[in-house]
Write a structure and sequence with these properties.
With 186 residues, the chain is mainly β. 0% of the residues lie in helices and 52% in strands. Strand 9 and strand 10 form a beta hairpin.
Length: 186
């Protein structure tokens, strides 16, 4: 697939995606205003109206199409039932997600003293999380370790690397360069 950007009628517009099976096409009037859009990337139809959705007095959704939901007294979803089965969630005494089960899924979660998720087990595969203050810096599981290089803001990941024993880096006024222990640029 290729992407073409242009200035139709003197105005910048969204790119045109061209491929063998996918694309977008726009038509403009003499003043350069878009008057139609077409192609497989274009949203040209209004979605169907939702005809089966119910809510309780607390504005919690009880049903949506073929799905039904139940909640605990704190407003946390307990079950989600649809034709494929029921997914059940369990909360701990501090109202944190402790477990999920159903539809071939079995998951458990544990937290450290600061309330951060420290461990998750999904279908017998366990992953632990190490933190540097508020941000996760390493996840360790059966597939190896994933390390994160974070920026100053919470949850802002600059780089993540899997199966790397050590990351090193230096910064100049223009950019940051990160290298693995073997010297490869990340």
């Amino acid at each position: 697939m290729s992407v073409r950007c242009g200035l139709p009628a003197g105005r910048f517009d969204l790119p045109e995606y061209v491929g063998t099976s996918r694309g977008s096409a726009y038509t403009y009037d003499a003043a350069g205003n878009r008057i139609s859009v077409g192609g497989s990337f274009a949203r040209t139809l209004v979605p169907d109206a939702v005809s089966a959705s119910t809510y309780d007095a607390g504005n919690r959704q009880l049903a949506f199409w073929a799905q039904a939901f139940t909640y605990d007294d704190n407003g946390n979803r307990l079950t989600q039932t649809d034709p494929s089965g029921t997914l059940t969630s369990t909360r701990d005494a501090r109202n944190r997600l402790a477990a999920l089960s159903g539809r071939g899924l079995s998951a458990g979660f544990a937290y450290d003293g600061l309330g951060r998720r420290a461990l998750k087990t999904v279908n017998s595969k366990t992953t632990t999380v190490r933190y540097d203050r508020v941000d996760a810096i390493r996840e360790s599981g059966l597939g190896g370790d994933t390390c994160y290089l974070r920026a100053l803001r919470i949850d802002e990941v600059l780089v993540y690397a899997e199966a790397v024993s050590r990351l090193s880096g230096f910064a100049d006024c223009v950019r940051m360069q990160i290298r693995t222990a073997t010297g490869r640029m990340v």
